[in-house]
Specification:
alpha+beta, Chemotaxis protein chec, eight-stranded antiparallel β-sheet, 34% helix
């Protein structure tokens, strides 16, 4: 996986999160995932097509998802992951991946993204269909978001 691809995803994710959530996010130590891999209670998945193909998965605890959704909704309290919170979290995925697409375009890589899918549940696992998947922990004082980027070779 090329560093320029990963750097675009990392830059976009931290910039978007830091614009909407009061706690500041930094990047933890990235690592390669084995398949299938476990997720937290809330996952947001988007497909990547174009010059590179793959998927992006954001994995959050329910408490983190509530805090992020609240930030996306300008501080409105979020007590449950209802339809409004799901919409806000899905839009977070769209914004991060849209910004990633712009950053990649600027280095000559054209991608499109699929609409986000949000899944909620316990003991979820993702199988990335043989793609090499890199997990980039997005770390804050209120908790972490796992950002998994899978690219087909």
């Amino acid at each position: 996986m090329k560093a320029e691809y990963i750097n675009a995803f990392i830059k976009a994710s931290t910039e978007v999160l830091n614009n909407f959530v009061s706690e500041k996010f930094s990047v933890g130590k990235p690592f390669i995932r084995n398949n299938p891999f476990p997720t937290k209670e809330i996952i947001i998945m988007l497909g990547i097509t174009g010059d590179i193909k793959g998927q992006a998965v954001f994995s959050l605890s329910e408490d983190m998802a509530k805090a992020v959704a609240s930030g996306m909704m300008m501080g409105m309290p979020v007590d449950e992951i209802d339809e409004m919170a799901k919409s806000a979290l899905s839009e977070l995925g769209n914004m991060i991946m849209g910004n990633s697409a712009t950053l990649l375009f600027n280095v000559g890589v054209k991608i499109d993204i699929t609409p986000p899918s949000l899944v909620k549940g316990l003991s979820l696992e993702i199988s990335s269909g043989g793609m090499e998947t890199l997990c980039v922990p997005l770390v804050s004082t209120m908790g972490d978001i796992e950002f998994d980027i899978g690219i087909k070779k």
